[in-house]
Amino acid sequence: MSIDAKTSVPALQRTPLHALHLALGARMAPFAGYDMPLNYPAGVLKEHRHTRVAAGLFDVSHMGQIVLRPKSGAMADAARAIERLVPADILGLAPGRQRYTFFTNGNGGILDDLMVSNRSDHYLLVVNAARKAQDLALLQDGLEGDCNVEQLDRALIALQGPKAESVLARLASDCVGMQFMDVRELTILGTECIAARSGYTGEDGFEISLPADVAREIAEGLLENPDVAPAGLAARDTLRLEAGLCLYGADIDTATTPTMAGLSWAIPAVRRQGPRAGGFPGARIILDELDRGPATRRVALAPETRTPVRAGAPLFAEETGGAPAGHVTSGGFGPSVDRPIAMGYVPAGLSAPGTVLFAEVRGKRLPVAVATFPFVEHRYKRA
Amino acid sequence: MLLRFTEDHEWLKIDGDVATVGITAYAAEQLGDLVFVQLPEIGTTLDKGDEAAVVESVKAASDVYAPAAGEVVGINEEIVNDPSIVNANPESSGWFYKLKLTDVKSLGGLMDEAAYKELIG
Questions:
Q1: pLDDT tens digits, A56-68
Q2: Closest approach of B24 to chain A, Cα-based (Å)
Q3: Closest alpha carbon within chain A to B27
Q4: Are A333 and B56 an interchain contact pair (Cβ–Cβ within 8 Å)?
Q5: Domains parsed from chain A with CATH numbers
Q6: Alpha-carbon distance B121 to B111, whole Å?
């Protein structure tokens, strides 16, 4: 067995919760330029399962938080400007609400996926850590003249799981009234924070933006509750995989369109037809693909043996011979479903649920059935 | 009974001409929670350095190499059914397979416990 030597990676950035991770005994690993907790002593399986039955606390401070403020003072001007970069209905996003969308490029590919919140006098964007520098440049170039673009230097934590509400309510009782994708200020241990009722685990929960200097105090305040356990990036990855959610750089990138990725639901009717149709990069390609249907599609894959099928594994239509028909983009073991799960891209003709394909793992072709997302039902707090 | 270790983080308990092989506590800890173990079939002949088994953690797959030449004469089905046994007891009930050694006298490149402990620091 070979185990990677412990190499010291220079100039890794640290989140405001770095010292807390070390104090909690986390196993740290580099991720998107940050020294991040992969798992804590409990281990990824326990952290994952605890999040599904109680609450997990994740440090996601490595993600980018960007404020867009309309230069005119009118939010509609900022909304129209943002709609030049994303295919979402930003003009129709009410104050106190958040929405999932993506930056597209001229080929209809995805430059990043992100959350946008209407914060009444500005928009708040949360973008992927690995893409924040590019996103910032894209916004500065694309919105110049319309918006002031500012990256926030704040911590971001995610409290996820069926007990997230009861845990947070002890510190901020008014979180109870929030619905999925609501955003509002909450005062937690005397500090005003910005909380969104959202996350990336498939569970109910909150993503909380907070000043860096109180991040540890608030995280420890949440961890005092026995229902809360710290959870690392490894558990975050298995949770989002079970929830069928895309990881940028693995399941979506500039080579995949929103239509291929099964994200058409995030392109509303007002951006498809009528006066505000199109107007975002790659609109012609994407709208055309929405009509015709994509040639390849992202599908859920259920391996039929116990062998995990991982990212990069080629997918074949037949058990022997032939060229690869597709490939796996994310895969591994699903701790809550207690079996291997995966997702990947296949030709539309092989994308019907129940279709049996073969993934090549260590030279052997193993049967995998096309399944349906999600592997674990979403439990968002909806009205 | 002789306890020996490899640079690749396997242990061998050698009793006569049969070695019981497993991965060390250090390896198990570094890998994290195991979710899949694939063992060689009984009767398989292995050369030193051959891929003998595969372990997969939540994050990644790793090969387990044969620490010496020999024939597989026993496998631990328990860890196939429940890979967490390897994390819980890597150097006892989490053993992998038994190898009938081709040549007990030429077990090159193996370390005793003190040397292995020095290796992992």
A1: 999 999 999 999 9
A2: 10
A3: A3
A4: yes
A5: 18-59+155-178+185-205+217-242 (3.30.1360.120), 295-376 (2.40.30.110)
A6: 14
